[in-house]
Specification:
Chain lengths: 375, 256
């Protein structure tokens, strides 16, 4: 009984085995090259006070391009000394990494792994030598950001207190006037009271100016900035004026959307908004596209404030419908699209009139405008 | 209990003698080994390919559903490649071979025992271990890692097919992204460890067949037991090997 096989079959077996080994070798090479083990590389060193969770084999990027790996993390011999990182970087990007390049650690998304980002130096500096050292930039941690926000809040607090003092002085003056110790004419003649009023108003003006500035800073500070992003705008005059963006818009008639004088969508209005959503989703919109919903009217309702409140509520009703029903604001995981809803009452902002965008449009309208920043 | 322990002791003795006989058998009987290899590799080829494709497709479908919720579907190839190459591929390929070969070897050697062929061979001067067991063990040892590579390849292709039909990534993006979390230090040991699984499958299958009772019914019984035992052997060996490999990789500081 023979357990042996012919030559051809043996050869066929060998070919199968070699083919599979070739596939395995190909795969292994690709994996190795992905981590810069096959290509020509050069090494660089960075010394950092702390590495913020960067791991062995972590990615190194040059101007955002995947360029290498962290080859070694050498802990210091004494406490207080910096940690030494050895990097392996693609030789092809060497001309970008100059001797004055800096390295910093950033996170890849909110939950992503930490990566080392290299900012290339000035073009007139010499290229980094093999094994040369990069300058390290300190790592920004979330805790530091929170500390910044807290100190900004403290400053606002103190400004508000000084504004309060100013108001207290106004009350004091009002009390004096009421007490009959001085009429308005007397106030004008009474030099001391006059000087006090002047001092108070300058002080109040300054306090309000400070408050404004601090608020603007605060609006851009995480996590408070999230609130303003959620609201969609922080400056109503500027919301329609975005010269750096491409503008697309749809105009709807207020009378088709809402019951007269109310901010409740009619069923016909909902259908029109469904149409708008279809128009919006027909093309792929980048994440940066912002949506502005602007409502206008021509009926002052006897009071400009009322007209403004009505249009504001109408714009918000449209925004609510488009976000709740069609998720216009969803762009993915932790980000959302800016959707601003602004009611302008009877008065379109100056910026809009100047661009000539209002010509030929009905006055009682809701405009849905897309601003796509052009890069 | 004591009987079982004794049985296990006999198996260990048998295994050690077979392993010692392997190098000689590989040199002295290469064509016998090739024949066994042919049986294991070509025989398991279709099922491994189908299983690989199916694993790739199904993993893609299930994971995409989860990842779409977080709008993270573009990370799917990276996750899929790690899931398949590090553990699913090797263990599934080993189990498929264990299913086919555990039964096949036990039934073959069981019926050889039944027909007294084994005894005849011993008398004719062809020792069972070096002429029957060792070639089969070698064949399994070589074939299982190769089948694992094929399984991995087909699973990745299954994922790619699914991505092309229903996904949004390009072929190029899929290829690059699937390498994202892969490290040689993970996939090379986990592919090579299947050689140990193959060896165990061969030894356990042969052992079960050689120790079957001498009746037709017992041969069928041995086939069933061969499957169960070789699969258990694969699982048990995996539990031992995984921490061992991880410890070893850390010890030598393999950073690739």
């Amino acid at each position: 009984m023979s357990h042996e096989i012919s030559r051809t079959r043996a050869l066929l077996n060998a070919i199968l085995a070699l083919a599979v080994i070739a596939v395995a070798g190909f795969g292994a090479t690709r994996v190795a090259r992905r981590h810069w083990q096959g290509q020509k590389t050069f090494s660089a060193r960075v010394e950092m006070a702390q590495v913020g969770g960067l791991e062995l084999g972590g990615k190194v990027r040059v101007q955002g391009i995947d360029a290498g790996v962290v080859e070694a993390i050498i802990p210091p011999s004494l406490p207080g000394k910096p940690i030494s990182l050895v990097l392996r970087i693609d030789e092809g990007l060497r001309h970008l990494v100059r001797s004055d390049a800096t390295a910093r650690i950033t996170a890849q998304g909110v939950i992503g792994a930490k990566i080392l980002e290299i900012v290339p130096g000035r073009p007139d500096a010499t290229p980094l030598a093999d094994g040369g050292s990069l300058r390290a930039e300190p790592t920004v941690e979330f805790a530091d950001l929170l500390k910044d926000a807290a100190s900004a809040l403290k400053r606002i607090d103190s400004v508000a207190r000084s504004a309060e003092t100013g108001l207290g002085e106004i009350t004091a003056i009002a009390a004096e006037i009421r007490a009959g110790r001085g009429t308005l004419g007397k106030l004008v003649r009474d030099d001391e009271a006059y000087q006090r009023l002047i001092a108070m108003s300058t002080r109040g003006e300054k306090a309000l100016g400070d408050l404004d500035e601090n608020l603007a800073a605060l609006k851009r500070t995480w996590p408070i900035s999230r609130y303003f992003n959620g609201r969609g705008f922080d400056d109503r005059d500027r919301v329609l004026f975005q010269p750096g963006s491409e503008r697309e818009s749809r105009t709807l008639l207020v009378d088709n959307l809402f019951e007269p004088g109310r901010a409740v969508l009619t069923s016909g209005g909902r259908k029109e908004l469904d149409d708008v959503a279809r128009w919006f989703f027909k093309f792929h919109r980048p994440k940066t596209t912002e949506v502005v919903i602007a409502a206008f009217t021509d009926d002052p309702l006897g009071d400009e404030d009322l007209a403004q409140a009505l249009t504001q509520e109408q714009a918000e009703a449209v925004r609510r419908y488009l976000t709740k029903q069609h998720a216009l604001d969803s762009t993915g995981w932790f980000s959302s699209r800016k959707i601003a809803a602004v009611g302008f009452g009877t008065q379109a902002p100056r910026t809009l009139a100047e661009t000539g965008a209002v010509k030929g449009l009905p006055t009682r309208r809701v405009e849905i405008i897309l601003f796509t920043p052009q890069v | 209990m004591l009987d079982r322990l004794e049985g296990f002791g006999r198996f260990v003795d048998f295994a050690l003698r077979a392993i010692l006989a392997i190098p000689r058998a590989a040199i002295a009987r290469p064509l016998a080994c090739a024949r066994q290899f042919e049986r294991v590799a070509w025989g398991s080829l279709p099922i491994v390919m189908v299983a690989g494709l199916s694993v790739g497709l199904v993993t893609w479908l299930q994971m995409r559903r989860l990842l779409v919720v977080w709008a993270a579907q573009e990370t799917l190839p990276s996750v899929l490649a790690v899931a398949v190459l590090v553990e699913t591929g090797p263990i599934l390929a080993s189990l498929l071979v264990a299913g086919r070969l555990g039964a096949g070897l036990a039934a073959e050697l069981g019926s050889m025992t039944l027909t007294e062929e084994i005894d005849a061979r011993e008398v004719l001067g062809a020792p069972t271990i070096s002429t029957l067991v060792a070639p089969r063990a070698i064949a399994c040892m070589i074939a299982v890692p190769l089948l694992t590579v094929l399984m991995d390849t087909f699973a990745l292709m299954g994922g790619l097919i699914a991505e092309m039909t229903a996904g949004s990534l390009s072929v190029r993006a899929y290829n690059t992204r699937s390498l994202d979390f892969l490290w040689l230090r993970d996939i090379v040991p986990s592919t090579l460890k299947t050689a140990v699984f193959g060896l165990l499958i061969g030894l356990v299958g042969c052992w079960t067949g050689l120790h079957a009772d001498r009746s037709t019914e017992a041969v069928g019984h041995a086939a069933t037991r061969g499957v169960v035992r070789s699969m258990l052997a694969v699982f048990a060996a995996n539990i031992v090997l995984v921490p061992l490999i991880q410890g070893l990789v850390d010890r030598i500081g393999w950073a690739g």
